[in-house]
Design goal:
By secondary structure, the protein is mainly alpha-helical. It has 60 helices and 8 strands. Helix 8 runs parallel beside helix 10.
């Protein structure tokens, strides 16, 4: 009855609060408490005193004193008084309590001495003692010693509630004593009580070895020791460090008693000490205790699965705390503890192995720091290197021992710990873990049955590569690809090197990998001359794999400024001669330039650049991230500028080479080359780029003249193609692409030249030329904002003049140009009055002129949202959102944004359905994105939009339905209620339209309304003639809920809760979901099911079934052999002949297994039944005959026939058995199979005496699906016309028949029955 759920924050009248809270309670203790509160309230009223906490405290203490002196004393009244006192005393001012502390404590201790066996009295009294003690004078321990010791003794009380209350009170007292003189004495009191209890149980043997200590765990003293350990779990983190140092050795010795309950209490107590951030920990004693624990659990015989994982977590958290307090002490103890924990990996229980491996990994990550590593490296670098090994060396030796065969069952757990050690050591791992790398290489050579964790092995090798670098790694494990037999080399290292190489040297690639590739290329030519094509192909694959390392070597190399020149000539030759290596070289150059530009501080905005950055960071593992963090320290802006200067020095060589390769490649292979040219041009000398640009422009001018000749006229619908025949128009586009790639490196004069050449091309009759011209214009506006500011008037005029002749294929790139010009005009303060073709009307302000320009361009953007091309459509939506964000940030009152919204709203007055539909779709997109800013406009917009539902234009209706979906998604239920009636009435106008699929769309929208507003609200506004739709929706919802309720377990419930929480967030815009025609036909079918079946519905169902079958056939025909190859997580190594043959041989087996039970369909959907070619059926038939011959001597079954003849298989003990396809059969059942009627001499079926006629069947009856049992019983009566009664069989009762799925129609069989 300490608080009984009452809020502690009472008002100024504690008595009134108690009465209000407990007045309805019938519990006797609560009624006594209310009586005490009423009595004290009356006393205060009689004395004209306010019912303040101080007055209530004084009155309660007077009553308590009288009650103690009364004989005989009423225990219930005493309990009620101290309970009242515990509720008031916390709010009494500390000075008042301090002045009355001695008298108050004396009375409270008298209560504890008199009523020590009553829990209801002791608990509130202990709370009062705690409050008074913490408020007393803490400079002297003598007045506080007695109440503290009494409260401490209650911590081992036999009553759980009293014990828990006392432990909480004592821990709060200790927290209040901190930083006061009494703290040390109080801590010593706790230690003294603990030691006295142990001596009472163990005697003088405390601190001796395990053999000399014998404890009877059932004694009262042992139980008190356990209670005291539970108290220490709260007290140990809040007592002094000196006291903790006295307790820790005792706890470590007690663990050796091998008492399970005692051990668990000690581990929990030490865990609380380790994780408490404010605890005072003596580092030496704590380190010794952790070392003792690790040694004990590793050397003990039987390892308890409940204790060892707890101990490993304690050691992990303890050493993490030690490392923050005193790294030197942690380092001195870490090697021995690491070795002890490593020994646990040989345990049999998986829980112990997992806990030990996780502990090792976290110890490495938290305790192996730079100072520890440097200490080990310094010792190794000393001449002679004599003396004891450093701590980090010992840890490395232990890590290497984890790869021994005695830990083979735990390699999958041990290898991540080894990987973590590589990450922690970094480059020093080359000196400290050479043996570990060699051991990892030997493990790779083990067969798959001995090495089941090859993925973890490769990660450990990758961590070694990332830590020490590929050059040092290959010094330990060379590739050995110069051997005569490549199978004996370490070519399996190449994929690992490719994934984990970072911070390498370009000089290493030039000095080692390129010469090796040259030697292998020479060997390839030699093998071709010797007539060994397979070996030559292997060499060619190795050469390509070595070159594939180039992008990885160019991932933050450390010597770009000094070593790039050594590989530049080789890269140029490979670009010119090696067609298959061009993509790798271009990727490497772009990575090299991009990373240095980022380090220099350049702003990256291009799509290709951002995509490259995302690709570089998407596959980084933790090892690569650690290595990247180390390498980036050397990538200062000065170092990056020096590297870029070194690369730019070879731009005179690379640019013409790339130009020539670009011209020679088909259009679909020019993307990488164009991006590489743009990257090199962005860092090259402007004069160099300008010289190349002038040469390109001359060729562009010549190609333009040739394309303008009448004989070279081409189809205006020409788009990008890979035709081998080159035309003047295609040459013109190629040179425009080359000029586009140089935009970043052009100066003002060259930019003007490029702009002047692109403007006329905007009105060219060729769509391909227009596309290139718009790309140039957009690139200039994006890369050169200053040029856009100066030429904005001319650019706007050019865009307006070309609007009528813009080709459909160029519209997407025209939108990119419009993006920059519109956003530019939204940010400028003044505008030109004349924009060439478009002359602004005089107006009162520049804002109106700016809005006039933007409105003219926005109408074009709105129309682009209805383009057939998906990219153009999405680009138009993105442009609208970008303009909206730009307008939104112009002013605080959002006036510019609202003007932009009104521009789009004005397009609803368009004269064509196409324009109206586009405006509605654009408004839907804006409302979806800016719902918080535009929700207040929906009440004015929605009536006009719903009025459009009366239109007969399909395009408008589809857009309005999409707008309604957005409104439902973005408005709350309360905001939707006023418009619910008009929305439903407008939607129901198209509820019967199946031709345009509006019927399914309307159903989907109604379902969304039901989910948002509730079924009741929608029913009120639904017209009576359409109530069937709501009935169908309700039934479907109830059916789904019943199914979900029946199959959901606790885990599924948690998952569904999580999914509901995540789907409530704002999702990305999906144009297809809002406006697409491809709605789910299932919804429409469900709606149709509310009425009678129709022929249209039947045809739709048949069409759906045939369509699904044809899709399944197409999907199965496209399955690749790789789908059947069981190669695990690793890709199939095509150079490994053995693995390839095994994979290919398994294809046919797995396909056969997959197709055993799968029916075959013809192209028109008919079922194919093969009687002659089913070898499996023949084998099963022969086996069945043999089994029948064997079992015919045994017992008879149905009708005197053998079990085998009836298709039944049984076991000796009568357990359920499986048929030939692995399906279980119930005990006592039998199945019919068509094999019994096969004519072995001719085709067709035969009749057998005593058996049913072949091809007998149970006629299908729709009543079998009826929910009423009587209807189903009537349908089952058809069984009598097929099977004979079991009473005719011999031997009494027959088992119930089961129809086998193996029944097939056989050629020549005549059906019997109806």
């Amino acid at each position: 009855m300490e608080h009984d759920g009452m809020d502690d924050s009472m008002g100024d009248d504690p008595c009134g609060e108690i009465l209000r809270h407990f007045r309805r309670s019938q519990a006797p203790e609560h009624r006594h408490l209310c009586a005490i509160a009423m009595a004290i309230s009356e006393i205060l009223k009689e004395q004209s005193l306010p019912a303040s906490p101080t007055a209530c405290f004084a009155a309660a203490m007077s009553s308590l004193e009288r009650q103690i002196n009364t004989t005989p004393r009423d225990l219930a009244v005493t309990t009620a008084i101290v309970t009242f006192l515990s509720r008031v005393i916390d709010r009494v001012p500390p000075p008042v309590l301090r002045s009355k502390s001695e008298k108050t404590l004396q009375l409270l201790l008298q209560v504890l001495n008199a009523d020590s066996s009553v829990a209801g009295t002791v608990k509130p009294t202990l709370n009062c003692v705690r409050t008074v003690v913490t408020a007393s004078d803490l400079s002297s321990w003598l007045p506080l010693a007695k109440p503290f010791s009494i409260a401490l003794k209650y911590c081992v009380d036999q009553k759980p509630k009293v014990r828990k209350c006392a432990q909480k009170c004592v821990s709060q007292m200790l927290m209040g004593f901190q930083r006061h003189p009494v703290f040390t004495a109080a801590s010593d009191a706790v230690v003294s009580l603990f030691e006295s209890m142990l001596k009472a149980v163990i005697g003088p043997a405390l601190g001796q070895t395990q053999e000399k200590v014998k404890v009877a765990p059932g004694t009262a003293g042992a139980v008190e020791v356990l209670h005291m350990l539970g108290a220490l779990q709260l007290m140990l983190p809040v007592i002094s460090g000196k006291a903790v140092g006295r307790i820790l050795p005792v706890l470590a010795d007690l663990i050796q008693l091998r008492q399970k309950l005692l051990t668990r209490r000690i581990l929990d107590t030490m865990q609380e000490l380790a994780v408490s951030p404010t605890s005072e920990i003596p580092v030496n004693e704590f380190a010794n205790a952790l070392g003792t624990l690790a040694s004990y659990f590793s050397t003990s015989g039987k390892k308890d699965v409940d204790e060892v994982p707890v101990a490993t977590r304690l050691i992990q958290s303890g050493f993490e705390r030690l490392h923050t307090l005193e790294p030197s002490v942690s380092a001195s103890k870490l090697p021995s503890v690491f070795a002890s924990i490593a020994g646990l990996l040989a345990a049999e229980r998986e829980e112990i192995v997992y806990g030990a491996a996780d502990c090792l990994r976290n110890l490495v990550l938290s305790c192996v720091d730079e100072s520890l590593v440097q200490q080990g490296v310094s010792r190794l670098q000393q001449p002679g290197a004599h003396g004891p090994p450093s701590p980090v060396e010992k840890i490395c030796v232990t890590a290497e021992s984890l790869l021994g065969y005695q830990y083979s069952t735990a390699w999958d757990m041990a290898l991540p710990a080894v990987s973590a050690l590589f990450d922690a050591l970094g480059p020093a791992s080359y000196q400290l873990m050479r043996g570990t790398v060699k051991t990892l290489g030997e493990l790779q050579r083990l067969p798959d049955e001995d090495m089941t964790c090859r993925k973890q092995l490769h990660k450990a090798l990758g961590a070694a590569v990332a830590a020490m670098g590929p050059e040092q790694f290959l010094n330990i494990l060379p590739l050995d690809m110069d051997n005569a037999d490549l199978a004996s080399s370490r070519i399996w290292l190449l994929p690992i090197l490719k994934q984990y190489t970072i911070g390498a040297r370009l000089g290493f690639f030039a000095d080692h990998l390129l010469p090796l590739a040259s030697r292998l290329r020479a060997r390839e030519q030699k093998l071709i001359g010797e007539g060994k094509p397979v070996a030559a192909k292997n060499c060619e694959a190795c050469v390509e794999s070595l070159w594939a390392l180039l992008p990885s070597v160019c991932n933050y190399p450390v010597d770009t400024a000094t070593a790039f020149g050594r590989i530049a000539k080789t890269l140029g030759d490979a670009l010119n001669k090696e067609t298959g290596l061009r993509g790798l070289i271009c990727s490497a150059l772009r990575t090299l330039i991009l990373q240095n530009r980022m380090a220099r501080g350049d702003q990256l905005e291009g799509k290709d650049e951002l995509k490259t950055v995302e690709e570089l960071s998407s596959l980084d593992s933790s090892s690569v991230l650690d290595a990247k963090a180390r390498v980036k320290e050397f990538y200062t802006p000065d170092a990056a500028s020096a590297s870029l200067s070194a690369i730019a020095g070879y731009s005179r060589n690379f640019l013409p080479l790339l130009f020539n390769v670009f011209l020679a490649q088909p259009s679909e292979k020019r993307g990488d080359l164009q991006a590489t040219i743009a990257s090199i041009a962005s860092i090259s000398d402007p004069q160099t780029v300008k010289n190349f640009f002038i040469a390109i422009m001359k060729k562009l001018l010549q190609a333009t003249k040739e394309a303008g000749k009448p004989k070279d006229k081409q189809d205006s619908m020409q788009v990008d193609s890979g035709n081998a025949e080159e035309t003047p128009t295609s040459r013109r586009c190629v040179f425009m692409d080359l000029a586009l790639s140089l935009v970043r490196g052009l100066d003002e004069e060259a930019l003007s030249m490029l702009y002047e050449s692109a403007v006329p091309a905007l009105q060219d009759k060729e769509g391909l030329v227009q596309k290139k011209a718009y790309k140039i214009l957009a690139s200039i506006c994006k890369e050169k904002p200053d040029f856009l500011s100066r030429k904005s008037e001319d650019i706007l005029g050019a865009l307006l003049r070309s609007v009528d002749v813009c080709h459909a294929s160029a519209r997407r790139h025209r939108l990119d140009s419009l993006r920059y010009i519109i956003i530019h005009y939204t940010k400028v303060a003044t505008l030109p009055l004349n924009s060439g073709f478009y002359v602004l009307q005089a107006g009162p302000s520049y804002e109106q002129k700016k809005d006039q320009i933007i409105a003219t361009l926005i109408s074009e953007i709105i129309l682009a949202t209805k383009e057939a091309n998906k990219k153009t459509r999405n680009g138009a939506y993105d442009l609208l959102i970008a303009i909206g964000h730009a307008m939104e940030g112009l002013d605080d009152d959002k006036s510019s944004f609202m003007r932009f919204h009104n521009m789009i709203l004005g397009c609803l007055a368009g004269t064509t359905p196409h324009m109206i539909s586009a405006a509605v779709a654009s408004l839907a997109r804006l409302i979806y994105e800016f719902s918080s800013d535009l929700c207040h406009t929906i009440p004015q917009l929605l009536p006009s939009a719903l009025l459009l539902l009366k239109s007969r234009n399909r395009e408008i209706i589809k857009s309005v339905l999409g707008l309604v979906k957005v409104v439902i998604a973005r408005l709350s239920a309360a905001d939707l209620e006023p418009h619910l009636s008009s929305m439903v009435q407008g939607l129901m106008l198209w509820s019967d339209d199946s031709k345009n699929r509006f019927k399914a769309k309307v159903r989907e929208i109604i379902e969304r309304l039901v989910r948002r507003c509730g079924m009741t609200s929608v029913e009120k506004v639904m017209p009576p003639e359409h109530m069937k739709l709501l009935t169908s929706i309700r039934k479907k919802k109830e059916q789904a809920e019943r199914k979900k309720q029946g199959t959901m377990d606790e885990n599924d419930d948690a998952k569904s809760t999580k999914s509901r929480a995540t789907t409530a967030r704002r999702s990305a815009w999906d144009h297809t979901d809002i406006f697409s025609d491809d709605d789910d036909d299932g919804s429409e079918e469900d709606y149709q099911s509310t009425g009678a079946p129709t022929m249209a519905k039947t045809g739709s169902m048949a069409k759906t079934t045939n369509t699904s079958r044809s899709k399944k056939l197409r999907k199965s025909s496209k399955r690749l052999p790789e789908d059947f190859m069981d190669t695990g997580d690793e890709p199939l190594d095509l150079l490994d002949v053995k693995r390839t043959r095994e994979a290919l041989s398994s294809v046919s087996r797995k396909r056969k297994e997959d197709d055993e039970d799968e029916p075959q369909f013809a192209s028109d959907g008919r079922l194919i039944i093969d009687e002659n070619g089913d070898k499996k059926r023949k084998r099963s038939r022969d086996d069945s005959d043999d089994e029948a011959d064997t079992k015919s001597r045994g017992g008879k079954s149905f009708g005197g026939k053998s079990d085998a003849s009836m298709g039944k298989t049984s076991t000796k003990h009568g357990r359920p058995v499986k048929d030939s396809h692995g399906r279980k059969k119930a005990k006592g059942s039998w199945s019919y199979a068509g094999d019994d009627y096969v004519n072995r001499k001719a085709k067709g079926d035969i009749k057998k005496e005593g058996k049913h006629d072949p091809y007998a069947y149970w006629p299908l009856d729709p009543k079998m699906l009826n929910r009423r049992q009587a209807k189903r019983r009537t349908a089952r009566e058809g069984m009598a016309s097929v099977f004979k009664a079991g009473s005719k069989t011999k031997g009494g009762k027959a088992s119930k028949p089961s129809i086998s799925r193996k029944n097939k129609a056989h050629k020549g069989a005549k059906p019997k029955g109806k």
